Amino acid sequence: MSKTLALTEELIALSSVTPEDKGCQSRLIELLAPLGFVCETIESDGVTNLWARKGTAQPLLVFAGHTDVVPTGPLEQWTSPPFVPTQRDGKLYGRGAADMKTSIAAMVVAAEEFVHAHPDHKGSIGFLITSDEEGPATDGTVIVCNALKARGEQLDYCVVGEPTSSDVLGDTIKNGRRGSMSGKLTVKGIQGHIAYPQLARNPIHQCAPALAELVAEKWDDGNQYYLPTSWQVSNIHGGAGASNVIPGNVVIDFNFRFCTASTVEGLQKRVHAILDKHGLEYDLKWSISGHPFLTPKGTLSDAMSDAIKSETGVTTELSTTGGTSDGRFIAQICPQVVEFGPPNGSIHKIDEHIEVRFIDPLKNIYRRTMENLLL
Ligand SMILES: [Zn+2]
Fold first, then answer.
1. Do 21 and 111 have their domain in common?
2. Residue 17 carries which DSSP code?
């Protein structure tokens, strides 16, 4: 049996729903320590993180990922129990099979093969593993990145094992992610009887033209790597529930998914300018859950694309689509960050799975990437 498959099954059997690690990382330490990795567990508010490094020389190539998984959803809808790894029709089923216990197993086995074959490789290899990626992500990768930064540890390349492929293994590498910024806008009016509008001020009527303008606004054109920035309203709450009351305020939640063609300050300024232009009395609270990051085509993406091509024959595409990932924290301390992993069609779903035929090639792609960068 493939060692990567066996380790994937072991990890799936540990029911590590965020922020639990359930012993996944101690299993990884058992495998990494004998290879010469210095392993350090960093705990924070119920979250378990692992920083492991073999070697002290540069360049430092880091593999990053998470041992936590999202909740299962209704158990009775699963064809086989989510924490009992089960093979059917060439697929391995279980929570975390695609996101991202196979990647973790593949990275560790790849490191083992690489270190055994090339004990005198150049540079260093690191592992940055967290149990808080699927949750609030406040005590996970960001904590480790801050600790590494504080002690002056220099990262050169980072591969995040998120499931980025779409149809077949290798078709997509993510070389960046858009940023995410939310706003909670409260437009203030004056509550009153709907029959006496002259004694009230209707905040719904007042904000409607401003919203129309925000919807129509073209924030940027995107760039070579990114689609244009998008602005979307997620919730509007206004009204007292009665048909004869003009409400006193309306609350609008919106979100920007923004690219590197715009800045946080620039977008905020433009929103305020539109609201001010319409003479609204309002309060606006911003929250930023991630800045965009981008690794232009270069040493790391070439090393990975080449590894994919050699292993699978697939010509890979660089993409920046999808939600945020822990890559956003790592990019603050590492100049080149890419994400690569198995197809993501079943992630977070009932009956999550990975095709067994992709498991060893995934491991080989990670190993070939090490060969391309550290030999
Ligand atoms: Zn994930």
1. yes
2. B
